[in-house]
Amino acid sequence: MAEVIWGLATSHVPSIGAAMDHGKTADPYWNPLFDGYAPARAWMARHTPDVAVIVYNDHANALDLTVTPTFGIGTAASYQVADEGWGSRPVPAVTGAPAFSDHLVGSLIDDSFDITVYQDLDVDHGLTVPLSVYCPDPGESWPCAVVPLLVNVIQYPQPTAARCLALGHALGAAIRSFPEDLKVAVFGTGGMSHQLAGERAGLINQEFDRMFLDAIEHDPEKLASLTREEYIREAGSEGIELIMWLVMRGALGPRIRRVYETYHVPASNTAAGMVLFENLGR
Ligand code: DHB
Ligand code: FE
């Protein structure tokens, strides 16, 4: 049977990928952030999964806004790296896991989550930056296959935080019911507090972020009880991406161990957080 071995929550700020792609990680501006990643990266390198389910959002890069599915899953054999306007990132294309994707879609739909299926999908910074946070030097290919799980966090009305946590619970059950012995990692991406435009551009709310970093481990139900308006008020118009961490958290189940956490301000105009959990099983 497949099992979830660990969960990683991480911001997916595009400039984090750009700093890596342009060899700037040792610069004084970036060094503290990348130093903070090192212990988690070392642990994950010793616990390589067969496949990662990466919960993320497209930022109107690969997908346009004429159709906005609330939840979607990629079922392709591979995913090209999206061109976000200045050429694709120089990182490997992403290898899919079609049979596993199909199983997840079927199981989630049976569980009343009406998932949109993406048979063809390019992946933007929301997915590739977390892969780079996990694995800075992939060489020719990433260490594991990937199932993209998309959440609408950019168009009102976004799903509730409670629905995202419930999706995580259903995702965990769907993973565990896959008959092959797959080791699965689940990534929750986006956040932390940030607002990219408007009067409150540059908003950082460290108090909220610290509360969130604690509660994602100890009290995810508390985070699930917040409304979308509360996320936007406290964490900023793009800070609502944090609801995607709840999908990851739900998939892990109740017995987890915090391996490592780091929090750094600023990365571009945002607060960047990362927390790694080992799943201790049922
Ligand atoms: C930026 C974009 C994002 O999608 C995000 O999650 C954080 C920051 C940016 O453009 O700086
Ligand atoms: Fe984003």
Features of the shown structure:
282 residues; alpha/beta; Protocatechuate 4,5-dioxygenase, Chain B; eight-stranded mixed β-sheet; 9 helices; 11 strands; globular; binds 3,4-dihydroxybenzoic acid; binds fe (iii) ion
In short:
The protein is an alpha/beta fold.
Characterise this structure.
- InterPro entries: Xdiol_dOase_suB.
- GO terms for molecular function: ferrous iron binding; oxidoreductase activity, acting on single donors with incorporation of molecular oxygen, incorporation of two atoms of oxygen.
- This protein has 282 residues and is of the alpha/beta class.
- The protein has nine helices and eleven strands.
- Strand 10 and strand 11 form a beta hairpin.
- It has a single domain (3-200, 212-279), classed as Protocatechuate 4,5-dioxygenase, Chain B, CATH 3.40.830.
- The strands form two sheets. Strands 6-3-8-2-9-1-11-10 form an eight-stranded mixed β-sheet, sandwiched between helices.
- Helices cover 35% and strands 23% of the residues.
- The chain is globular, with a radius of gyration of 17 Å.
- Fe (iii) ion is lined by residues 12, 59, 126, 190, 238, 241.
